[in-house]
Design brief:
Helix content is 74%, strand content 0%.
Length: 526
């Protein structure tokens, strides 16, 4: 067992404090019953700092910390493109898509699809997202988190799965999005602090206790191949990160789908007080994304270098064990703080996914089938029940689905890559092309899966990220062709003239700084 009594005490104190704070901030005034807007959109009252912090807390979880650190162990800094390009994608979402969604005052992404296309599209995509969040996202976060707990404590993985699920229920089930979002500033602070600590400890270990800066220099000298952002074709990981294709290809579709059209992410921005607060939160989140590779990927590279030297005593049995193995290097007490940061990342994401599952199921699946029969309190109860059932299913299927994958992060990306092209085409053309039809959207959704599957097996030499771009273009072509053939008016088409796309001076300044930093980073580590 790698955790001492004081470490367990720190984790326990964090858990009790978080549950207490979440319960306090989500309480209702006397005489007021929690309604759907309170539970699913936090009463539409989130300030910018809560929006930005919650975006990152929902995003950074076990699949990033454990999975991406494991990919850093194998691939190197190139995997950081998922983080750094996400910062640029956030800025595009805040500028061009968020104003449309907030103008329409929607609760969910399926609701937008119903207004823009028809009920069929909404229902199909609702079922898809419910399946994705339950069998891929929830499952991955639980499994990676439980394996990290097992590595650090020696507890069985099943015990870790149950403990994480129970913590997530206690923390988020009662209060909904308000409980999650208003405590996420605590979660992000702990996450960043713990991440910086583990990065410092790992780099100091690489430098034989002469400091993190020296350790970073040694890291670059010992493993220069791990610091190539743009991989060459002879790199064994080129199929996952295909060189320039990362910058100009499918990575944009992957990030746009995740940050712009993904319910459990965009729901935070939809819950903002107004568009200005939402956009400020987007910029805040973009700055935080720039920091993430330092606290996630660099430790993975450090673990790779340390594992090559038997004298360090660091053993990494598989890539996804890199981060938990590094935590074991921390001193007693500090180890508990870092472990608490890891738990914070896991439960914040679990809470976010649970709330989004409950939102989509209740508002897009259940309510339309029981129109006129439900009360606000009943819908909240249905939402809580749906999220709890989804969590139980995820606990049961976690090991069978993910137990045999050495790099869970790449598994998640490739699986979602089957559907991402169609989702992007449906939303992008749905917003910016008035003639896109419901039939076109449905065919594009089906084509996305079939074309991706066919290319994977018939053209295995094409990297999956390039495949995402090609299938996206094909799905766009399908929507355009059917739209031109049908030649019928689309009453739900977005009137872009009614949408305010102008942003504040602060948004432009913040965006410019983020872009300048990205250009500098890619220039240095090209």
């Amino acid at each position: 067992m790698n955790l001492a009594t004081i470490d367990f005490a720190i984790v326990a104190a964090y858990a009790v404090a978080l549950i207490a704070i979440a319960t306090y901030v989500s309480r209702e005034k006397a005489g007021h019953t929690k309604d759907t807007e309170d539970y699913f959109l936090a009463g539409k009252m989130l300030p910018w700092w809560a929006v930005g912090a919650s975006l990152i807390a929902a995003n950074i979880s076990a699949e990033q910390i454990i999975g991406m650190s494991g990919s850093g162990f194998v691939v190197g800094l190139a995997i950081a493109s998922y983080e750094w390009m996400a910062a640029a994608t956030l800025l595009l979402v805040g500028k061009y898509f968020l104003p449309v969604f907030i103008k329409q005052q929607i609760y969910t992404m399926p609701e937008f699809l119903e207004r823009r296309y028809d009920t069929r599209v909404k229902f199909v995509m609702s079922l898809f997202w419910l399946g994705l969040y339950t069998f891929v996202n929830l499952t991955a976060v639980l499994w990676l988190g439980a394996t990290a707990i097992a590595t650090l404590t020696g507890f069985p993985v099943l015990m870790g799965l149950i403990a994480l699920a129970a913590f997530a229920v206690a923390y988020s089930l009662y209060g909904g999005l308000k409980a999650v979002a208003l405590t996420d500033i605590i979660q992000v602070t702990l996450l960043v602090l713990g991440g910086l600590l583990i990065a410092w400890i790992a780099l100091d270990k690489v430098a034989d206790a002469t400091g993190a800066v020296a350790g970073f220099r040694i890291l670059m000298e010992a493993a220069p191949e791990k610091f190539d952002m743009i991989l060459s074709k002879d790199n064994p990981e080129y199929m996952n990160l295909p060189g320039l294709g990362v910058l100009i290809g499918g990575m944009w579709m992957m990030n746009l789908s995740y940050w712009g059209f993904n319910q459990y992410i965009i729901q935070r921005a939809l819950a903002a007080k107004d568009l200005d607060q939402a956009q400020k939160g987007i910029v805040f989140a973009a700055f935080l994304k720039l920091l993430m590779p330092l606290i996630i990927v660099i430790p993975g590279i450090a673990a790779f270098v340390l594992a090559q030297d038997a004298a360090t005593g660091l053993e990494v049995p598989r890539p996804d064990a890199a981060y938990p193995s590094l935590i074991a290097l921390a001193p007693v007490g500090v180890r508990g703080l870092i472990f608490a940061a890891l738990i914070a990342a896991i439960v914040s994401s679990l809470g976010s996914m649970m709330n989004s599952i409950s939102t989509i199921f209740t508002l897009d699946v259940y309510r339309p089938l029981h129109r006129g029969e439900e009360t606000e309190g009943h819908l909240v109860l249905v939402g809580r029940s749906a999220s709890l059932i989804a969590l139980i299913i995820a606990v049961l299927v976690a090991q069978p689905l993910l137990g045999n994958f050495p790099q869970a992060f790449q598994y998640i990306q490739e699986f979602t890559g089957f559907f991402t092209p169609g989702i992007c085409a449906i939303f992008v053309l749905g917003v910016f092309w008035k003639r896109a039809t419901g039939n076109g959207a449905l065919v594009a959704a089906l084509a996305s899966f079939l074309l991706s599957l066919g290319m994977k097996f018939l053209l295995p030499g094409i990297p999956f990220m390039d495949r995402v771009l090609y299938v996206f273009l094909a799905c766009c072509a399908v929507i355009v062709v059917l739209g031109l053939i049908e030649k019928r008016p689309q009453p739900g088409a977005v009137d872009l003239k009614q949408v305010e796309f102008r942003t504040s001076t602060g948004y432009w300044i913040g965006s410019s700084v983020v872009v300048a930093i990205l250009v500098l980073l890619y220039g240095i580590y090209w």
